[in-house]
Amino acid sequence: MSDDTKQTQEVKAKRTAKNSVFLDLFQDKKNLLKLYKTLHLEDTDATEDTLDIVTIDNVLTDNLYNDLGIMVGNNRLLLLLEAQSSWTVNILIRILLYLAQSYHEYFERTSQSLYKSTKVKMPKPELYIIYTGNRGRKPDTISLSKEFFDGADIDIEVKAKVIYESETEDIINQYIIFCKVFDEQRKLYGMTEQTVRETIRICKDRNVLKEYLMNREMEVVTIMMSLFNDEQIMKTYWKDMENTLTDKITHDKDRETAERMIKDGELSLEKIARYIPSLSMDELKELEAKIMQLA
Fold it and tell me: If pLDDT is split at 50, 70 and 90, which confidence band does 64 have?
């Protein structure tokens, strides 16, 4: 096995292991076609064979991304990014970078050079955000110029249609409902397997992604429990960072206090060490030497 083949397999394995339910659901070409038909009812000629997933593999890190790229023949490029229950217009920046990378890979894949005089052929982009939180007064479309530059006429623009929960029974709406059920159960049971099991049970009872959940229930449980693990790891990491920062601030204040006491010259280093136990005798001697040099 060549090194390139081995590396490709490792990347695919890593991607599969870190898939979200969103990506896992639409890896199935049958579901992918349902998604596309939801967005393009007029395209009666579309088949599973005319659709290709061109999602960018996250090779450098293991972070989980809910970004899906779909090529329809060579004429249309659809990018669908999931915005979960926390709304942020920063997703427009992700779309911009994702689109640029998608085109870069497309030109390489089709052997087109940007440095020749011949105009390249490129698929028409369609940009969507699937929002799984409550809509409220959020807009149907968001744009880079409006959100970041007060609507100014800028030299580059990105516009994305936002898809919210609706009264329809299409596969996108079913996925949004699945996410909302999951959020409701997590509020009841926390980050536990019971949350995942209850989400699956409720959705199957309500005929929400029923076929997918019946066929891949174990995979969905594994994916969602992995998500819990990732969240817990990140929470622990940020808590450690917060504690480290707090300790550093306290230590810096103690050093400042010790410096003032040494400059006053009224107390010996031994007594200062008793008042400020967070500083070692060696550190106090180092401070004293520094102060003497500056005097």
Answer: very low
